[in-house]
Write a structure and sequence with these properties.
The structure holds two protein chains of two kinds.
Chain A: E1 3-5, E2 10-14, E3 19-21, E4 24-26, E5 32-38, E6 44-50, E7 56-58, E8 64-68, E9 73-78, E10 87-94, E11 101-103, E12 107-112
Parallel strand pairs in A: 2-12
Antiparallel strand pairs in A: 1-4, 3-9, 5-6, 5-10, 7-8, 8-9, 10-11, 10-12
Chain B: E1 5-7, E2 10-13, E3 19-24, E4 31-38, E5 42-50, E6 53-57, E7 64-68, E8 74-78, E9 87-94, E10 105-106, E11 110-114
Classes of the chains: A mainly beta, B mainly beta.
Chain lengths: 113, 115
């Protein structure tokens, strides 16, 4: 069965520091992978997605993620975090044959000055 | 702004009651998805409709039902409400309803509180 694990429930980084949010998935075939961000009181916004091709994916707001099949990972990175990046981040995996998304439990990011 | 609208934003009701949540997809999107986000269960897929027809079902309780109307808006009906149904309910839409094969755009959610 498909599943997504975000091992870090909460992360605190200083503004300007680099960021990496971890995501591991379990899926039998090539997955579709996504990162969403949820700001307080808001819906989910798509940051980036991986369907196939180049394993390094560029997204909005300066985020990128790298698909590593050997590690079943799709970690999200940003070289320099801004205070406005404080939010909840969700990794999701989908099937190329089914219609369901499976979300991780989310990582809450706090940015300190 | 994703272009997906949901009403109401907040809903407070009592146990045993029934409520209806409404979602209007982005212009041009044919498919609507419903999700429930709660503290203990996280974000879970409930159900998907495509052009008026049910296409996929997730962890949706029998007390819950949904439909998509000819104008493509969708309603999620929650009945015999229990305290545990308190959650944030999201609607998302996509163009062709290929599920994970295409981007889903999420609405701002309806926060339901059952007292």
């Amino acid at each position: 069965a498909q599943s997504v694990t975000q091992p870090d429930i909460h992360i605190t980084v200083s503004e300007g520091a680099s960021l990496e949010l971890r995501c591991n998935y379990s899926y039998g075939a090539t997955p579709y992978l996504f990162w969403y961000v949820q700001s307080p009181g808001q819906g989910l916004q798509l940051l980036l997605k991986y369907f196939s091709g180049d394993t390094l994916v560029q997204g909005i707001k300066g985020f990128e993620a790298e698909f590593k099949r050997s590690q079943s990972s799709f970690n999200l990175r940003k070289p320099s975090v801004h205070w406005s990046d404080a939010a909840e981040y969700f990794c999701a995996v989908g099937s190329n044959t089914g219609n369901q998304f499976y979300f991780g439990t989310g990582t809450s990011l706090t940015v300190i000055p | 702004d994703s272009g997906v609208t949901q009403t109401p934003k907040h809903l407070i009701t009592a146990t045993g009651q029934r409520v209806t949540l409404r979602c209007s997809p982005r212009s041009g999107d044919l498919s609507v998805y419903w999700y429930q986000q709660s503290l203990d269960q996280g974000l879970q897929f409930l159900i998907q409709y495509y052009n008026g027809e049910e296409r996929a079902k997730g962890n949706i309780l029998e007390r819950f039902s949904a439909q998509q109307f000819p104008d493509l808006h969708s309603e999620l009906n929650l009945s015999s409400l229990e305290l545990g149904d308190s959650a944030l309910y999201f609607c998302a839409s996509s163009v062709n309803g290929r599920g994970a094969g295409e981007t889903q755009y999420f609405g701002p959610g309806t926060r339901l509180l059952v007292l």
